[in-house]
Structure formats: C-alpha cells, structure tokens
Design brief:
Keywords: Isoprene biosynthesis, Magnesium, Metal-binding, Transferase. It comes from Bartonella choladocola. This is Probable farnesyl diphosphate synthase. Its cofactor is Mg(2+). Belongs to the FPP/GGPP synthase family. By secondary structure, the chain is mainly α. It has one domain: Farnesyl Diphosphate Synthase, CATH 1.10.600.10. About 70% of the residues lie in helices and about 0% in strands. The protein has 15 helices and 2 strands. The protein has a two-stranded antiparallel sheet. β1 and β2 form a beta hairpin. α3 packs antiparallel against α4, α4 packs antiparallel against α9 and α14 runs antiparallel to α15. The longest helix has 28 residues. The chain is globular and about 50 Å long.
Length: about 300
C-alpha cells in the first residue's frame, strides 16, 4: 500500500503541474484577457492539494490497453477541472455552506461568493478546452466520445442532477433506492466516466468499456459510502473539511439509514465486486485493485 500511495502522489503532482500550466497568466489563442482575481480563485480551488483520484483512474485504465499515457493525463486533467469546479460550487452557502476544503478556506471564503461561482464556471469550460486542444492528438471519433461522455457524466443526468437530488433530499427523504441513485449521480458519475474514459482512449471493445464502466460505478458507490462513514467517524483535522456536517444537516445517506457497521459490510462486498470485474485483465489490473482497496480503506 505504501508503494501505491507513492504512485498516487506522483500522479497527483503530474496532474497538478498540468493544471498549473493551464491556469497560468498566458493568454491562449482566442482569449482576450485573463482577469487576475478570477485566475487566482481558480488556482485556489484547483492547486490546493487533493489525491487526483479521478485522473489516476483514467490513466490506469488506459494503461490496461497500453494507451498513450500523455493523452490519458490530458483527459484526467480535464476531469479534475470539472471535479474541482463541483467542489467550489458544493461549498457555497446556497449548497453545503462549508468554510474548509482540503484544510484551507473554501473559495467563497478566500474571495467572495460571486467570484467562487465564476471560478467554478470557468473551470467547467476549461475542461473542454483540454479535450478539444489540438495538442491532444486523438482520432476525432474518440475525442468526440470523450467529450460527450464527460458532458453527460457532469451534467443534467450525472453530477449536477445528483446535486439537485441531494438538495431535494434535505426536505423530502428518499428511500434506499433513491439514495443510491442520488449518490451514483452526484459522486459516482465522474468516477464511472474516469474508468470508461481510459477504455475509450484505447479504442477498447464495447465489452471492456462496459466492464470498466461497471467497475467505476462500484468504486464510485464505495467512495461515497466511505465518505459517509468518515463524516460520522473522523474529525475535521483528518478530513480537511468540517466533520459531521451531513448528520447536522440531516442528509439522506445510506449510513444514516442503516448505520456504520452495515456500511462497512457493504464496502467489503463492493471490493469483491470490483475484483470480479477486473478478473479478465489479470495482473495488469493490480493497480486498479489497489485503487479500489484504497477507496474503501481511506481515512480522509
């Protein structure tokens, strides 16, 4: 696990460097100017640490098929920009109203609410800048599949739709099926995309794409389930964000519905499911197996 942690950290540094370069003062062709305050807010929301798990999944699923790793990193950076935008907006007073993210002031606290909203908007659009850039040398059909998949995973029928369901759940509690749908959209959609994107990049078979999409769905649910357990069991210092917020807000979660021990049992079941889905790939999938275990056993 120590070797895996080092691998994850090295990947995080590489993705961080790509995002740092993209969010420089350099004005790209077609741009007019880069307002300094907006750029600073975007950098605050992106270059503040984080495991960069989603890009890691893109890269490691692409590696199964010996795909172009530089292209996988570019797709991963686009996905991370979307993820970071979602965190900036999720922390806003109209949403979860959080003061801390990764142990630092949230963007609306460090700047202001309007700047935080616009920083998120700009990160959303810069993700598609990554994917449409000519520097990403990909077949046009594959590029379109990646763009379309990201748009659908991030939008109405994916992450944003899940956030709406999460807000609605504060006043009208969903049943277990409703919670699973909410979590599959809000958290799981981008993780599922991360795993399928590696297969798309590689022009893998439909069967392999579907298998990796299912793997992503399993660890996406595991990620949210582990997150909900940590909200109950960990402290603010360990989490880097306010602990116990979901309980205080009376949020609809599977942990609130069934308890921590039930959730831990479910996590082990999801690990078994992930192992089963990766079986056809043999030893080449060992890093993905370690990723699934990391998601389930994480402490923050």
């Amino acid at each position: 696990m120590e070797d895996f942690t080092n691998l994850l950290a090295r990947n995080a540094r590489q993705i961080g460097e790509m995002l740092d370069a993209k969010l420089s003062n350099h004005i790209e062709s077609g741009e007019i100017a880069r307002p300094p305050r907006l750029l600073a807010a975007m950098r605050h929301g992106v270059l503040n640490g984080g495991k960069r798990l989603r890009p890691f999944l893109v890269i490691e699923t692409a590696r199964l098929f010996d795909a172009n790793i530089e292209a996988a990193q570019c797709v991963g950076a686009a996905l991370e920009a979307i993820h970071c935008y979602s965190l900036i907006h999720d922390d806003l007073p109209a949403m979860d109203n959080d003061d801390l993210r990764r142990g630092k002031p949230t963007v609306h606290k460090a700047f202001d609410e309007a700047t935080a909203i616009l920083a998120g908007d700009a990160l959303l659009t810069i993700a598609f800048d990554f994917l449409s850039d000519d520097k990403l040398e990909l077949d046009a059909k594959i590029r379109l599949q990646l763009i379309n998949g990201l748009a659908r995973s991030a939008g109405l029928g994916g992450m944003v739709g899940g956030q709406v369901l999460d807000l609605e759940a504060e006043t009208k509690k969903p049943d277990e099926s409703g919670i699973i749908t909410l979590e599959a959209m809000k958290t799981g959609a981008l993780i599922r995309y991360a795993c399928e994107a590696g297969a798309i990049l590689s022009n893998a078979t439909r069967e392999d794409r579907e298998r990796l999409s299912e793997f992503g769905a399993a660890i996406g649910l595991a990620f949210q389930l582990a997150d909900d357990v940590l909200d109950v069991t960990a402290d603010t210092e360990a989490l880097g964000k306010t602990a116990g917020k979901d309980i205080a807000a009376n949020k609809a979660t599977l942990v609130a519905l069934h308890g921590v021990e039930w959730a831990k049992h479910q996590l082990e079941g999801l690990m078994e499911q992930a192992d089963s889905l990766l079986e056809p790939f043999g030893n080449k999938a060992d890093i993905l197996r370690a990723t699934a275990r990391f998601v389930i056993e994480r402490k923050n």
